[in-house]
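A further point concerns the way the authors explain their paired sequence and structure data. Showing the layout once, in full, would remove most of the difficulty. For illustration, here is how one protein appears when written out as sequence plus structure tokens:
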Amino acid sequence: MPPHATRAVRVAVDAVTLDGDLTIPPDARGTILFAHGSGSSRHSPRNRYVAGVLNAAGLATLLLDLLTQDEERRDVVTREHRFDIVLLARRLGGATRWLEQDDATRALGIGYFGASTGAAAALVAAAAHPEVRAVVSRGGRPDLAGPALPHVLAPTLLIVGSRDTEVIAMNEDARRRMEAPVELQIVPGATHLFEEPGTLERVAELARDWFIRHIPAPDRSRDASAHHAAHG
């Protein structure tokens, strides 16, 4: 299957401009906004793999750097931004508004895929944006979302490796604090980064099925009617 066309986008948020890669397959049913973990970026091979599986299932993806290049360079030394969940969530919110206004994505429901600390940012942003349809966390730190957890409305899937025992406990605690529909899936044999054979594939399958289950396809018949009315 040939790769879907990807276009580079620039998203203005918080007086900075963030770089992203937007991929929209034909007849997309929704857009999944990726929130990368600490020290990662839109070039993360793990998230790019998951994005490819979602694209093949008819889901658009936006892989976005939540920090500018200058902030990334500073963060490598100071680590001042990677755990700034409020900052990262605010930028996810700005990217959500961008998706709601862009001609190519405005009709599509939005979901979040968060990894590590990015999962906390995704949950905080989802609490502030009730229009978000679904959230998936991969090896996430939902505990860092703190008081936002009970305010998340989006159905949430927490995916953790069976050998990532400390993070399993954090996810179980977060699940108890959430009122939205939430499931915890443990991937056998996986550590924090899902580097073991077959484990990342399982993450991608679980995420794909969750988003398809919870993000309804847009009503294209209404769009077609509006087009005919305008051009009839």
The beta strands are 6-13, 16-23, 30-35, 59-64, 109-115, 134-138, 156-161, 182-187. The mean pLDDT is 89. The two ends are 37 Å apart (CA to CA). The chain has one domain: 6-217.
